[in-house]
Amino acid sequence: MRKKTGKVFFSVSSSTSSFSFFFLCVGIFFCMEMAMAQNRKTVPINVGVVMDMDEGVGKMVLSCISMALSDFYSSDHGSDYKTRLILHTRDSKRDVVAAAAAALDLLKNVEVEAIIGPTSSMQADFIIGLGEKSQVPIISFSATSPSLSSYRNPYFIRATQNDSSQVNTISSIIQSFGWREVVPIYVDNQFGEGIIPFLADALEKINARIPYRSVIPEFATDDHIKYELSKLMSMQTRVFVVHMTTSLGTKLFTKAKELGMMSEGYVWIITDAMANQLNSMDSSVIESMQGVIGVKPYVPRTKQLENFTTRWKLKFQQENPTILNAQLNVFGLWAYDSAIVLATAVEKSRITGAPFQKPNISGNATELEAFGVSKDGPKLLQAILNTTFKGLSGDFQIVDGQLQSPAYQIINVFGNGAKGIGFWTRENGIVKELNLRNTNNVYSISKAIFGTIIWPGDTTSVPRGWVIPTNGKKLRIGVPVKDGFSEFVKVTRDFTTNTTTVTGYCIDVFDAVMAALSYYVPYEYVPFAAPGKATESYDDLIYQVFLGTFDAVAGDTTIVSNRSQYVDFTLPYTESGVTMMVPIKDDNGDSAWVFLKPLTRELWLTSFCSFVFIGFVIWLLEHRVNEDFRGPPSHQVGMIFWFAFSTMVFAQKEKIVSNLARFVLVIWFLVVLILTSSYTASLTSMLTVEKLQPTVRDIKELQKNKEYVGYLQGSFVPGLLKKMNFDEDRLKEYSSPEECVDLLSKGSASGGVAAVFDEIPYVKLVLANHCSKFTTVGPTYKADGFGFVFPMGSPLVPDVSRAVLSVTESEKMVQIEKAWFGESTCSDSSTSLSSNSLGLASFWGLFVIAAVAAILALLIFLTKFMHEYWHIIKRTNLSFRERVRILARKFDRKDYSCHTFKKSELRDAMRDSARMDCSQSPHDNLSMLSSPRTNGPPSPSISSYTEQSFHFPGEVGTPPLHEENVAVSTQESVIELAVDLSAGH
Questions:
Q1: HSE-CB of 87 using CA atoms within 13 angstroms
Q2: What does the DSSP assignment read for 703-760?
Q3: CA distances from 747 to 36, 101, 498, 750, 755 (A)
Q4: CATH numeric code, 163-300+408-449
Q5: Pick from 177, 284, 259, 264: which is nearest to 455 by CA?
Q6: Poorest-confidence range of 350-364, 522-536, 593-607, 643-657?
Q7: Which sign, positive or negative, has the C-alpha torsion 728, 730, 731, 734?
Q8: For the chain, what is the radius of gyration of the CA atoms?
Q9: pLDDT surpasses 50 at 535
Q10: Which of 80, 431, 559, 843 is placed for a possible disulfide with 784 were both Cys, Cβ 3.0 to 4.6 Å?
Q11: What CA–CA distance (Å, rounded) separates 747 from 745?
């Protein structure tokens, strides 16, 4: 019995021990789990989302945000994150007040650390102010208005593209096709107005202007849209830039299609507000937008994006089964990347979601004063700005509070969607293929890069960008009314029928030019003058184009710079320039001195100096070696002038023995030959051909004599004359060719004018009938001729200018000129009546050659002479004056080393020897040869010593003395003798 009891007791004890061990293990495991759970506890961070939930875009964006957080926390590092974003969604209901109330609720009651949204720029304008006050970052991926700036609101983060960043892309497209006028069509709110100043500046840089701005209310009715489009149809501009929301834009293009504005000739460019959502539009809307050009931020196609798109479609279809064929656009991608950036920044900043710091306010404070200030806001803001990563939309980087985009894509709506036709980058402009690593900084705007573009009307022809207005009005062409020169423009009024007829050379040219255009332009001529009066000022006429009174001006209007400041001119169609017309006179009165006219005063003076200089050079080179160039001073001076001027007719008889002189004369004879031949030809022409000369030869003569000058009434010439310093009271105007002829015929002294300044077409018209009385003189002053006037920036100007070239180069222009001006029988007298005097400019090269030859010969002569008498020059015991005097004496003496003197001395010696043989006896000769010598050799006499000692260095023998060598002063002879002896002579 005990045994049994003991076994039972043992069994119970064993069971108790097992249960105790089990509970102990369970307790330890539970404690470990509690500790691990405590370690895995995350901090919830409240984040608000303000979105228009009743739109497909709002639902798409919300699903992208939730998927972003799911992907972020389920990633490989998701288990290590200490924070979790808790979304608090509010519906802004497409209303600014509702959005502001939703944000206020999130800040006051939920105390969110950040707000994602809102959808529109108008909603964001107020909410970012609340964010700044509460120091809560506001992250918007769809508020694109440039008026919203992070500089003014540092807590505003734009996770999308600023609208102003796409205007350069649009302007590059417009510039590449050469369109000169653009009409922006935009919604009448902060979103639409924000881009206009930047677009206007970009267009101004490419010389394109905005003639009209089409503003459409956000909730415009169909009738209002049709009225505004009809107004655009009546204008000539056909290039439109559309910047509005997708809902309003679809209505606009639908009505434009109904009105026929999506046909050939129109250009439609949409901004990224619509281009980003093309894939979510109905097919009927796409059908009405065929041929539209669009720009949108470039999103690279990656595998990550493709996988996310697939997952998003499945998730969105499950959550929204009533929405069919939903498409993901770039706003969803930006929302996804914004949520990733916010979650990353929250984790990096280690914020704890601490309660807001409540302000000290009174009990009657408003709702806007009741919410507090986030303690973690500044830290979170810096973390967001410093976060960069490669997201679904590309490289996500916030710079200056705004998302940076490397490029824009240019698309063309065609078929069921849009195709890419090019890209635009800030560095390279328009490119075919995008290469972000391209280091080539060449900026391109070539339209060839786009390839084939389908334009509205299903055409590939590039639209001209403008057409003649369809409002039924004709172009009003202003024409001047003239009293004279009716060959250019003539206005005839028939008061019985109350009609006006405009004819003339300028009118025929304008008609021919407009007919040469590739399209029809209706127009009518409107005279600019009061009834019965002439146009007083062409400047006033042209200014009417600037004021809009006329659409153009056709007439003899000259292209000048001050007029081009407010109007545009076509290319000129007449000869350009202003010239001076003066009377001509018989030149027989000056026939007594006509022999002086062939050469100008400068050439006469230069020739005289050259003759004297050459004569002097020849005398220097020949004086020591030629008897003809020696003698008394007066004889030598006369020889210089005689010899030089005798070469003019080759009448010199003196023989030249020096080679240097011969060299100089060869060159000089060439100069003389050319100069005399030219003089003879010019004099002959004057005596046989030229009999008439202008009464005034240049403007200086008019100004010096204070003569009266004339100009055509209404022209710009008076301003030109005043710039040339003509006195205003010396100017007289005329209005007809007859009056011009009368003024010139009277002359300045008899109440007329001495000269007339006018444009070449008018001058030619006068000379055509009076070429025997008047001629043109002086230079032609620059002017660009006659041109047609159009408003500044008119698209007609390029086409009309091309038509002007076509007409002026054709036979049509010749026919028009013959019809109005006939064929002149007068030759061009401007050349025959100009001065034929030969000037220095025609011969200075010859004089330079002669001078160089003479100077070279002189240098050689002086070098030889100085070398020969160098022993005198280097003597230091002689003064400079004494050395110069000795050298002058040496130069004045004959050079007996010359062959000419050797021959003459030999002939003289032979004659003396023959005379001595005949007169002397043999005894005398013998005594002279063998006289006795006592006490050594006899001393030579002073005379014989002098004759034998005073010779030049290098002389051979002892030449007999001549008179000029004997007449030397004793002092100079002694000095020369001492110098010669010291030199070894």
A1: 20
A2: HHHT--EEEETTSSHHHHHHHTT--GGGEEEESSHHHHHHHHHH-GGGTS-SEEEEEH
A3: 120, 91, 43, 6, 8
A4: 3.40.50.2300
A5: 264
A6: 643-657
A7: positive
A8: 54
A9: yes
A10: 559
A11: 6
User: Averaging pLDDT over each range in 748-752, 875-879, 917-921, 938-942, which range is the top one?
Assistant: 748-752
Helix axis angle for 659-688 and 844-868, nearest 10°, is: 160
Q: What is the rounded distance in angstroms from the CA atom of residue 963 to the CA atom of residue 958?
A: 16
Domain ranges (residues) in the chain: 43-160+301-357+370-403, 163-300+408-449, 475-576+797-819, 580-587+693-783, 594-690
CATH of 475-576+797-819, one of 3.40.190.10, 2.40.160.30, 3.30.1280.10, 3.20.20.140: 3.40.190.10
Q: Where are the alpha helices (DSSP H) in 40-139?
A: 56-73, 96-105, 121-134
pTM above 0.85, yes or no: no
Using the CB atoms, write b or e for 281-306: b if 16+ within 10 Å.
Answer: beeebbbbbbbbbbbbbbbeeeeebe
Q: CA–CA separation, 739 vs 279, rounded Å?
A: 76
Which of 81, 88, 72, 83 is CA-nearest to residue 44?
Answer: 83
- Per DSSP, the three-state class of 161 is coil
In single-letter form, the type of residue at position 107 comes to L
Looking at residue 702, what is its pLDDT? 86
Confidence bin at 5 (pLDDT 50/70/90): very low
Can you read off the two tokens belonging to residue 384? 């967001």
Residue linked to tokens 């009024």: 493
Structure tokens at 461: 């022809």
Angle at 584 between CA 580 and CA 590, to 5 degrees: 125
How many helices (H) and strands (E) the chain has is answered by: 35, 30
Does the 594-690 domain belong in CATH 1.10.287.70? yes
Q: In what order do the strands lie in the sheet with 293-297?
A: 214-216, 183-187, 239-243, 267-270, 293-297, 408-414, 417-425, 429-431
| AA letter at 974 | V
Strands 417-425 and 429-431: antiparallel
Q: Is 185 exposed, middle or buried (0-12, 13-18, 19+ CB in 10 A)?
A: buried
Are the folds of 43-160+301-357+370-403 and 163-300+408-449 the same?
yes
pLDDT at 836: 59
- Per residue in 470-519, pLDDT (tens digit) is 555 788 999 998 888 888 899 988 877 778 899 999 999 999 999 998 77
Could you tell me what percent of the chain has a pLDDT over 70?
81
**CA neighbours closer than 13 Å in the CB half-sphere of residue 28:** 5
Instruction: Return the structure tokens found at 3.
Output: 């045994």
Mean pLDDT for the stretch of residues 742-750: 87
Percent of the chain exceeding pLDDT 90 equals: 32
- The domain at 43-160+301-357+370-403 falls in which architecture? 3-Layer(aba) Sandwich (3.40)
Q: What is the identity of the amino acid at 474? A: K
Q: Is the peptide bond before 118 cis (omega within 30 degrees of 0)?
A: yes
Backbone phi and psi for residue 942, each to the nearest 5 degrees, phi listed first: -65, -40
Tell me the residue ranges of DSSP E strands in 159-300. Answer: 183-187, 214-216, 239-243, 267-270, 293-297
Amino acid at 949: S
Count of beta carbons in the 10 Å neighbourhood of residue 393: 25
- DSSP 3-state assignment of 690? coil
What is the torsion angle, in degrees rounded to the nearest 10, for the CA atoms of residue 630, residue 635, residue 641 and residue 647? Answer: -60
| Residue appearing with tokens 């023989």 | 655
Average of per-residue pLDDT values in the chain = 80
Domain 580-587+693-783 carries which CATH code? Answer: 3.40.190.10
Q: CA–CA separation, 470 vs 261, rounded Å? A: 12
